[in-house]
Write a structure and sequence with these properties.
Blueprint: H1 2-21, H2 25-35, H3 39-69, H4 73-83, H5 93-121, H6 125-140, H7 144-154, H8 165-176, H9 185-209, H10 216-237, H11 239-249, H12 259-269, H13 281-310
Helix pairs in contact: 2-5, 3-4, 3-5, 3-13, 5-6, 5-7, 6-9, 7-8, 9-10, 9-11, 10-13, 11-12
Length: 311
């Protein structure tokens, strides 16, 4: 009888040990999901954004003035020239920080999420790209406070209130609360997710269908042109959402208006014409052409360098 009881206890102990050896489902998900991410994708995205912002920020500032005031490019250029060189790169730190982190997230989260969905769930490649693109865009929205402060620093009416990025962040947070930093989040969500998904789908299609170049210079030129055309086209398509976002973020302190209310307000203020939502779009398309061309070429070259170093 005693021998049987010992045998039962040993069997129970064995079963308990087996249960402990089985990893929790959440731990398996965490390990598999985050194990799909590659740090090189994050690093290449960050480096590509740094190169781009350093070159294109003055162009962005002219576009911003056109978005905000609805003026032609000559008037926007005249405003910046009148303010002087000291203010030309004013507000550059937020987009530099935001873009380096944002593009790092964009490439890194997209690649990791897509790989996880395809490898673990055998999801269709195009569906995986769409889900991964929207996921990356949604995660990027966490960086909206950088865009918020950038809008305030680039607007001439706030020059006397904010001397630098740090003071702008502090003022908005202390006087208006954390939620004020996320004013304009709805148009950003509508912009980020779909535009990311569309970018990666078109980018990979171009990579597959375009001829493979053996020369480094011709390959870089092809990467620049492919990224430039895709980026400029998507930027133009989603341009009205940026106009709505800037309009929502250019005010501070009072209750935020909804995206639809702001859209109707802009429509009425600008002559009841949808075309005015595209004021500044031509220059924005040119900037996006240069910007996305630089980022795509820089990303691919950084990735090739890291691949060579790992061999």
């Amino acid at each position: 009888m005693i021998a049987e009881e010992k045998k039962v206890q040993q069997q129970q102990q064995t079963n308990c040990n087996e249960l402990r050896s089985i990893p929790l489902r959440s731990n398996v998900f965490t390990e598999r999901f985050f194990g799909s991410f590659n740090w090189e994708e994050f690093a290449c995205g960050c480096g590509a954004a740094f190169v781009n912002i350093a070159i294109t920020y003055p162009i962005y500032k002219m576009i911003f003035r056109q978005m905000l005031h609805g003026v032609p490019i000559t008037s926007a250029f005249s405003q910046l020239r009148h303010e002087g060189l000291m203010f030309l790169y004013r507000g550059m730190l937020p987009p530099l920080a935001q873009k380096t982190i944002s593009l790092s997230i964009m490439f890194g989260v997209f690649d990791g999420t897509r790989r996880y969905l395809v490898d673990d769930y055998r999801m269709n490649a195009y569906k995986a790209k769409i889900v991964a693109g929207i996921t990356a865009g949604t995660v990027e929205t966490a960086l909206l406070p950088f865009e918020r402060v950038q809008t305030l620093l680039a607007d001439a009416k706030y020059h006397q209130y904010f001397e630098n990025t740090q003071r702008a962040f502090r003022y908005v947070f202390v006087h208006h609360g954390f939620h004020e930093l996320y004013r304009g989040i709805v148009p950003v969500l509508w912009r980020n997710g779909p535009s990311n998904a569309l970018f990666f789908i078109l980018r990979e299609e171009a990579s597959i269908r375009l001829p493979q170049r053996s020369s480094i210079s011709t390959r870089a030129a092809q990467e620049f042109i492919a990224g430039a055309i895709i980026g400029a086209s998507i930027s133009t398509l989603f341009y009205p959402l940026n106009v709505i976002k800037v309009a929502m973020q250019s005010s501070m302190g009072h209750p935020a208006e909804s995206m639809w209310t702001t859209t109707l307000k802009i429509y009425k203020e600008r002559g009841n014409s949808i075309m005015y939502f595209y004021r500044g779009c031509g220059f924005n398309t040119a900037r996006s052409f240069i910007s996305w061309g630089i980022m795509n070429a820089a990303y691919e070259n950084l990735k090739n360098l890291m691949t060579l170093d790992s061999l």
